[in-house]
Amino acid sequence: MGDAVSAHAEGHPGRLQGPVVWVVSVAVGLLLGVGLGRMLPARHAEDGAGHERSAVFETRSDGSVSRILADGRSVPAEVPEPGQAAPEPAAAEPAGHTGREGDGGHGSEPEIPLWLVAPFVLLLASIALMPFVSARFWHRHYPDVAFLLGAAVLGYYVTAFGAHGRH
User: C or N: which end of the chain has fewer Cβ atoms within 10 Å?
Assistant: First the structure.
């Protein structure tokens, strides 16, 4: 009986588990996330998603009004009447560019798709149900599943959102 207990405590020789499988899980998850990021790129509020960009104005002590741009610069502006769209500043930014340098030309923040909660929901469901479905498998491979799902989300974020957040 002592041999059976020590063999169980040491694991099953010849089976892949532990750090080797964790690295493989991360690699597979990253590949999956990168693939999803290329197939389903991030959307931005100005891509026609129905969001309206708000304008930020600053009133100085001398009574002049400036519009604050996405990159933090301020340019002289006229305050729009309530209910009217803010006028675009003339020649304040290069044509076709609406935001910070290195953000792919998008001045708005990316929209995080709702389906990105799926890996988290899957992990929670697995934590709740897998011990009843297959306790032995789950206790051996829980870290593998967690690394795979986490790396898939990470791969998607890095690929789909690219330069956002890099200043």
Answer: N
